[in-house]
Amino acid sequence: MASTGYDFELENAVGYRFSPTDEELVNHYLRQKMLGVDHEVGEVPELNVCELEPWDLAANIRNSENNSDNPKWYFFSPRIYRYSKNKKANRRTKLGYWKATGRDRKVKSERINEEIGIKKTLVYHQGRVPNGVKTNWVIHEYTATLNLPNQGKEFVLCKLKKNPGDVPNVEDESSPVLDFEQDQSITESNDVPAIGEGNFSPQAVAEHTSDVEEVRNGMLCGDIFHPKT
């Protein structure tokens, strides 16, 4: 069988057998990718999390953990925003969406004992808000908080897995991390907050109205803004 562009030599990868730690994922792979040193991180493919469903992502990636009882797949995804003027991440696919759950976790460097990244848990739901159906597909999304010189395109590193058995309850007891897909009030109410009620500013009213219209129109990945490089 001819090798694909996603095959790689495990013995040359940081994190032998490609089971790297959170620190290695951020401090080596994600850092080098964001600096444009692609030849140092060729073990991990670049895919767009919005353009493929989780099962298609898995089918396009080959790594050493595919033969285990609990396989994991690693890939880079360009950071995509829903709007050009703020940092709301877009995580919609053609058939569903990735919903953030739980609290963000800090990734620290053991050597300097400082934060170098953020780890977020995402669960794939089929359908659209507020009627999406939770699945067993989970992503741990890593974002670098490093101060990188000459940084190019913005990326996140994703660790994809499919939990066995029944749909897992990955949400912890802490307050959930609010994400666009979790804000179901947008689709459950047509009310726009009036200026003067509470602390709403004209800008907040405009953003709320924009969110309502985009949910109604079913905006997909092709309709979002990409960050400038």
Main β-sheet description: 5 strands, antiparallel
Secondary-structure-based class equals alpha+beta
Sheet-strand content, in percent, reads 15-25%
Spatial gap, N to C terminus: 37 Å
GO cellular component, one term: nucleus
Pfam families: NAM
Subcellular location: Nucleus
Main location: nucleus
Protein model, in words:
- Residues 12-163 form the NAC domain.
- This is NAC domain-containing protein.
- A hairpin with a 4-residue loop joins strand 2 (96-109) and strand 3.
- It is built from 4 helices and 5 strands; from the N terminus they run ααβββββαα.
- The two termini are 37 Å apart.
- Strands 1-5-4-3-2 form a 5-stranded antiparallel beta sheet.
- The model is unreliable at 1-8 and 170-229 (pLDDT under 50).
- Helix content is 17%, strand content 24%.
- The chain has helices at residues 22-34, 54-59, 185-188, 202-217; strands spanning 72-78, 96-109, 114-126, 133-144, 155-162.
- With 229 residues, the chain is an alpha+beta fold.
